[in-house]
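**Backbone geometry record:**
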Amino acid sequence: MALGFFSHTWAQSNHLVKQNLGSSQAANRSMFRHPNAVSIRYYQLDLNKLDQYQQVIVPCENETMTLQFERSFDYSNGASSWYGKSITGSGYGIFSFYQGAVSGKWVNDLNQSFMLQSLNQADFFAVSLINNEGMQESDMQMADYIETAAGKPTKRANANVCDLANACTTPSVVDLMVLGNADAITDGGGSVGAFTTNVASAITEMNTSLINGGLPSLSFNLVHCDLYAFSTTASSSNDLGTFASDAAVQALRNTHKADLG
């Protein structure tokens, strides 16, 4: 097995875990319980080691995984991400930061996914093992994107995006704006900061996939992420259309020069 033995004593200096926490130590701390969480464990972590070591060790239930630092991502809105790969297989890990908020995700060599969530104390965290097969998907009959109207003018011309009609000789950067209503903020960690770090992690995962897939000339950049008052209905497709036509949303896209929102 590619993963190492997981102990309650952390002798390695590059192990992120300072100590295991009991459920009583994590009690009364605000956290979002992922609906697909198989189990949750609590730790005191030293994330400063991400800056101190090229290799760090993360917990994976009763085992561990060693991540080798690969690259960092800095986004225009101020969020940043650390990305590393398993030294023994296909696993990887992402840690994202924004204005004091932290979140993370790692997938071990056995394709088990773990989500990191702060417990509103500087170094107390919950790590949830997630059931990937239980993740919700969009209804096959329901559009989950917004079609661009032909010939629709834009005030958000981005010189960093290659024109489809021309050969792409320079890197293309797509600027993204992500807004979440109150429910999305709650599900994304309970605060705008936590929500933003989760969004940054998702964008980092996309950017890393593009790089690993041989498409380093295309990347995504987070330019704005915030709470936005919006009531949803039973139809996510209709909601997307209503959201896209919202004048205030369009104004925000223009302000932040977002190619997609």
Q: What stands out?
A: The chain is about 20% helix and 35% strand. The first helix runs from residue 23 to 26. Residues 1-10, 145-154 have pLDDT under 50 and may be disordered. The radius of gyration is 20 Å.
